[in-house]
C-alpha cells in the first residue's frame, strides 16, 4: 500500500537443519503471521481487530549456504483465542 506497517519491528532469524543437525542450504522458508493488532489477513479471520493495509502477513525467503534465514517484520499482536495446550 506504500506506507509502513503498524507495530514494533522485529527480526525473526533461524537455521534449517536436517534430522542429523546438518544445515539445509537454499531451501524455501515461508511464514504467516498476524499483524500488530492480532489479526490475520485471511478471509476466515473474523477477529474484530482492524486490518493493517500496509502489512501483508506473509513472507518467503531461501536459506543461505549454511541454512540460515531471516525476516524483518512486526511483532504480532495477541490472539483472541487459545492456540493449544501450552497456552
Automatic annotation (TrEMBL):
Report the GO molecular function annotations: ferric iron binding; oxidoreductase activity, acting on single donors with incorporation of molecular oxygen, incorporation of two atoms of oxygen
Under Gene3D superfamilies, the record lists: Aromatic compound dioxygenase (2.60.130.10)
What region holds the Intradiol ring-cleavage dioxygenases domain? 12-40
Tell me the keywords, alphabetical order. Answer: Dioxygenase, Oxidoreductase
PROSITE patterns per UniProt: INTRADIOL_DIOXYGENAS (PS00083)
Pfam families registered for this protein in UniProt = Dioxygenase_C
Does the keyword Metal-binding feature in the UniProt annotation? no
Work out whether the entry's keyword set contains Ligase. Answer: no
This protein's source sits in the domain of life called Bacteria
User: Hey, which family's this protein in?
Assistant: Belongs to the intradiol ring-cleavage dioxygenase family.
Q: What is this protein called?
A: Protocatechuate 3,4-dioxygenase subunit beta
Source organism:
Pseudomonas syringae pv. actinidiae ICMP 19096
Amino acid at each position: 500500500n506504500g506506507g509502513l506497517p503498524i507495530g514494533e519491528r522485529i527480526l525473526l532469524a533461524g537455521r534449517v537443519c536436517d534430522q542429523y543437525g546438518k544445515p539445509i542450504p537454499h531451501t524455501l522458508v515461508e511464514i504467516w503471521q498476524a499483524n500488530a493488532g492480532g489479526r490475520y489477513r485471511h478471509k476466515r479471520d473474523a477477529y474484530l481487530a482492524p486490518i493493517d493495509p500496509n502489512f501483508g502477513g506473509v513472507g518467503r525467503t531461501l536459506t543461505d549456504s549454511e541454512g540460515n534465514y531471516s525476516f524483518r517484520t512486526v511483532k504480532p499482536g495477541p490472539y483472541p483465542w487459545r492456540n493449544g495446550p501450552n497456552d
